[in-house]
Design goal:
The chain has helices at 2-22, 53-65, 76-84, 99-102, 145-151, 164-172, 183-192, 218-233, 236-245, and strands at 27-33, 36-37, 41-43, 50-51, 67-73, 90-91, 106-107, 112-114, 116-121, 137-141, 157-161, 178-182, 197-200, 207-209, 212-213. It has 248 residues and is α/β, with parallel strands linked by helices.
């Protein structure tokens, strides 16, 4: 009886070793992000880790899709150029899905809706919204839809920044008159500086964020979309909205 027990046990261990050896390994992908856009992506000053809404979304998708992620923190303009040239497998960085961008990269299904909004200094009384920006100096981040929107406004002086944080600092210091950016980000900066900044007007564009993927990797896009559908079904987007955007 003991002999039979040990034979069964050895057999089970052997099968376990074979199965574990055959288990598929997670596919490794390089993902670009511009970690200067809180609360969606930013560097935690204490841990130095990249965190945020977008990072939580993609990490959850990766778990569902069997992907192992390595993040590369790069500026937004080189991020777009890099994903277009397939230097990265994918990118997540509050990237608005546009027809022009679709020509150079693949996009996942949308995972978040946003739009452009205007921020000014707290003591500003003449700017009520985007219609009052004529003759003003307006900051926006390079490569973003805000740059396109402000660039199309007549009589507006556009100042482009590599880091949106510098735009808000210049706004506080009175070096520019307004900043245009995605509403969650603007609300975040205003929330941290309520005595210095305020939002004026409403959201004046209708945009959706997507995960960008190298155009040569449709199979990766399929995995990401499947993972996104799964986490959406579990209510993750709503949970992360409460976690990262509550009070904004």
């Amino acid at each position: 009886m003991k002999r039979l027990f040990w034979c069964v046990l050895v057999g089970m261990l052997a099968v376990s070793m074979v199965l574990s050896g055959c288990a598929p390994k997670a596919a490794k992908i390089l993902v670009a992000t511009d970690a200067t856009w809180p609360p969606f992506e930013y560097v935690n000053e204490q841990t130095k880790a990249i965190e945020g809404f977008d990072i939580d979304v993609l990490n959850a998708i990766a778990e569902k899709a069997g992907l192992e992620i390595k993040y590369a923190n790069v500026g937004f303009d080189p991020l777009l150029a890099g994903i277009a040239q397939c230097q990265y497998d994918a990118a997540i960085s509050s990237i608005t899905i546009t027809e022009d961008r679709k020509k150079e990269m693949l996009f996942s299904d949308p995972y978040f809706g946003a739009g452009q909004i205007v921020a000014v200094r707290k003591d500003n009384t003449d700017i009520k919204g985007k219609e009052n920006l004529t003759g003003k100096r307006v900051g926006a981040q390079i490569g973003t839809t805000a740059t396109i929107e402000v660039g199309n406004m007549k009589g507006v002086t556009l100042k482009i920044y590599d880091d949106i944080g510098f735009a808000f600092q210049d706004l506080i210091n009175g070096q520019i008159d307004a900043v245009v950016a995605d509403n969650p980000l603007v609300l975040g900066y205003v929330g941290k500086n309520p005595d210095k900044l305020k939002v004026v007007g409403g959201i004046f564009t209708d945009e959706y964020y997507g995960i960008a993927v190298c155009k040569n990797k449709p199979e990766l896009l399929a995995k990401i979309n499947a993972g996104l559908e799964a986490v959406k079904g579990e209510g993750l987007i709503e949970k992360l909205t409460k976690k990262w955007l509550s009070g904004q």
